[in-house]
Amino acid sequence: MSGHEEIEETQDTEAGHWQGLSRLSVWANTVGGALVIIPIAIAVTVTFALVPMAWWWALLPVPAAVLFIAGATYVDLLRLRRIRYRVTDERMEMRSGIIAKAHRSIPRERVRSVDVAAPLYARVFGLCTVTVGTGESAGAGGSDQLQLQFVTAEQGEELRRDLLQRGPAPGSSGEEAPAEEGEEELARLNPRWFAYAPATGATLGIGFGVLATLVGINAQMGGQGWEWLSQWLGLPSGAEIGAFILAQLLLLIPLTLFALLLLGVVVTLAVAVETWWDYRLARQDDGTVRLTRGLLTSVSLSVEGRRLNGVALREPFVLRSVGGAEIRAVATGLSAGDEQKTAAKSRLSPAMPGKGARALAATLLRTSDSPFSPAPRVHPRAALRRRFTRAGFATLGAVVVAGALTWVHVQVREAWAETLSSVEIDVMAVPLTSGTAEAAPVWGWFAAAALFGVVAFWYAVGSYRGLGHGLHPRHLVVRRGMAVRTTVALERSAVIGWRITRSPFQRRLGLADVSATTAAGEGLYTATDVGLGEGVAWAEGSVPDLLAPFVERVEGEDEGSGQGRSVLP
Amino acid sequence: MISNALRLRPPRHRVDKRAIWWWTTRSLLTAVAAAAVPGVTAVFVEPIRFWLLLVTVVVGLAGLGVTVVMPQWRFRVHRWEVTDTAVYTSSGWLWQEWRVAPMSRIQTVDTARGPLQRVFGLSSVTVTTASAAGPIEISGLDHTLATEVVDQLTETTEATPGDAT
Description:
Number of domains of chain B: 2
CATH architecture of the largest domain in chain B: Roll
Keywords (chain A): Membrane, Transmembrane, Transmembrane helix
Oligomer: heterodimer
Helix content of chain A: 40-55%
Protein name (chain A): PH domain-containing protein
InterPro entries (chain A): UCP026631, YdbS-like_PH
Largest interface: A-B, 43 and 34 residues
Structural class of chain A: alpha+beta
Largest sheet of chain A: 7 strands, antiparallel
Strand content of chain A: 15-25%
Number of domains of chain A: 3
Organism (chain A): Nocardiopsis coralli
Largest sheet of chain B: 4 strands, antiparallel
InterPro entries (chain B): YdbS-like_PH (IPR005182)
Number of helices of chain B: 4
């Protein structure tokens, strides 16, 4: 294998030779591209052949796709030749670029994470992608990452091992992977955990998504798809089906929901198995935390222990209600372009039992008394009042909307009935809306608004209960959220400043948002709607010397903070 | 509870008095621009002229109100302080913000002068840390003072060990 020879070359030097990407990576990219493009080309060919057009149109797509792939392969070949990287004692350097040359050089001590990923089509060639997180952004909008796509699996393993190792001599000569021995396993996949995978709000949504896509396709074809299907299956007409559905609502609604749920369960399970198969979390001797997972795309992520500044325990509503939780890293150097990718990258565990997740989080933080087990301190009643006010306004809005919808409803029944049902038959094939409008009572909208109000107030209570903040020997803890309740334990030494914000409403109620700023994770962790004095005391206790010069003790009139004031002189 | 008796004292120094005029001018320009959009449209669009003029008046009055109230209010809130160990600022008017950053975590210190600030001889000092929470900004300082503050900050930051993360 050609890539292999290049590794051999480096072994005798102390500084590290320039190495290239694996030559096979061109073929991996070609195969990867072809897997996407060729099926599309074939599909287009078939479509052209079926549609009454000039027959020679059908000859075009496949050769065009082949030509495109060949061109891309050629460009990729050029790109490959120009990319060189090396790891010396102090720095990791990378050169790239065909027209615009780039040379990036980062000090090795800035390397915070090494991410080795191998999608299936690359794994066939024995290749992997290595992404090095640095925590330094390269100019405006640039990502703070350095990516090698692809190197051989040996090179990837070597990089992963060396880059996070402090001190001398990368590219170890002779000795074979000693790092793996002194490993402490923190967690391993328990297949039962997959039972938690469908416990997300998205499960039903995914089912609806599939259904909505089908309806959308039918609408695009001007309703022909449905006609063709119903003829082929010998189904009754749309109007008859509509009448049947409306007649059997009590039976059909639960059945439909069940079917959607089943569809969602299958999809979420498949995704979870793909992502978390072979999951293993381990800590190496030097403190580096290593995550391996993945069925089709195997992923290995190493985060330097010193850069893992905290852990976030996430409990989305549905998962929480079945007693599950998942863990994310709060670390520097894990950011990847946009927020969603960063979040995906910082996941350290699949959805698992809450108790186990709390224990695992505590182990990760190396604390004996878990910052997660005692509930954080509650926030003042005024915080609940704020949430009630919001819920009240939301309900008011819902009532207004209900009024408007009632007006529309009446119009649909009378003035617009004809037009609407004809449009509907075109788009959905089954006239449900107009039928429902006929059947449903007009006051239904206000019933819905009332229901919305109940949910809003229930949400307000839940979101108040979710608020919390706490202090532990080495960590500070903040908790918030109703839809997704997140508890974050952040190392106190990682706090690099404080931000306190107060809106006019918060000033009136004596509340404040007290946020710890940090270089890790989201960069800002907030105790929301905490009592001002309490929040300041908490912040002052977390990082004692920082805030102390700016804090004063109030004896007499405390501006605005009406409740909870000390009765002592 | 004893902890309820704690609060942050305001930072020691006010910003320059001229900042009031700077804020007033800035707010006035924004208000005029915002009111001009429906106002100019009203000249050309006949059918809904009345409504456009109404919007112009409402926007103009609101802008004028802000211009009268905001600068004084801001001047009462905006304060700053640089000690040997930390930078401490407060800013805002309706929504207020207090920021503290320790010297050891400061990455860069800059001054910036917009065209409008230059008219009033003012400068802003921007202090960046590694956090995603954004930089700390002290705006509306006298230009010479701002330079001195930056010099002092740079000196102290260099003397403080740590890699600012």
